[in-house]
Amino acid sequence: MTDTSVPRADAGLSRRSVLAGAAAAMFVPATVAALGSTAAAAPPAAAPPAGAATRAAAAATAAGTVHRVTMYVEDLGGGQTGYGLEPGKATIPGPVLEMYEGDTMEITLVNTTDRDVSIHPHGVLYDVNSDGSPFNNSYNRPGETRTYVWRTTGERAMGRWTRPGTAGYWHYHDHAMGTPHGTAGVAAGLYGALIVRRRGDILPDRQFTVVFNGMLVNNKIAPHTPMFEANHGETVEFICIGHGDMFHTFHLHAHRWANNRTGYLEGPRDPSQIIDNRDLNGGDSFGFQVVAGEDVGPGAWMYHCHVQFHSDAGMSGIFLVRNADGSMPPGAQESIDWFHNHEGGGHH
To answer: I need a surface site. Which of 135, 215, 262, 318 has the fewest CB within 10 A?
Structure first.
């Protein structure tokens, strides 16, 4: 299976697009993900990566940055529809959209289809005109262009209580195609990841979006599901999203994370549960970071839904951890070949 990862903005634009336009004409941090996977240059443990001026600038802007983005809704054929940052570049999932707490994002959505569509976010702040639903008459009719505004905020003290901010691993999706709830749009692939970071959060080397949508992974079934790739020792970020009508769980072989906002423990007394499997149901989302192959080494590792008949039916894929130099570890190609010949083929 082909490696779908692409360089981050500081390593060359390639298929990754950088969001342009901001308050004070700042060049701002960007979205990611073609087919759910992006690669990056390694960052220090608790600072923006060296050379990534866009992210560093946004992190240092206490007043927040305004990100102005144009997105296109396009038919991809075969009943599939996607979001993209350029005409002819729509993907499933759509691009990862990122902000820091305090930032605002203005999304100009261009509907190139002959159906109603929208973009509805989870976790951030918006008014009724940016709700992205027919309920509030805030959607794109066929051929229409519309701007949606999403805002974020940090934590706020209220006496002995603290109101939470908007930092988290969220998502966006259509809320208009087929029904007033966007059921046909979500089924067709109109969804993507939305991250709101807290200043000081660790930034990953590589970033992958995994969407369990009905009985599909990123609208594919094994052995055609995405193969995510990283080198041994790199920091990897997974954004996991659930859609559809079924109960799912997400399991990643050989890697563990803390069941909290980031996947990291905040110290030796942090009581967060350590997990390698978590429920991932319709409308749910979570994210975490792991070190690829930490304590277990490189190899071809599986990710899948742990509802048994779901994984048997093709809800599985490969997380390939290459050697630190990028070469293929012993036995990995054999595992990949086995996956192609067995997963989804009923030959276990």
So the answer is: 135
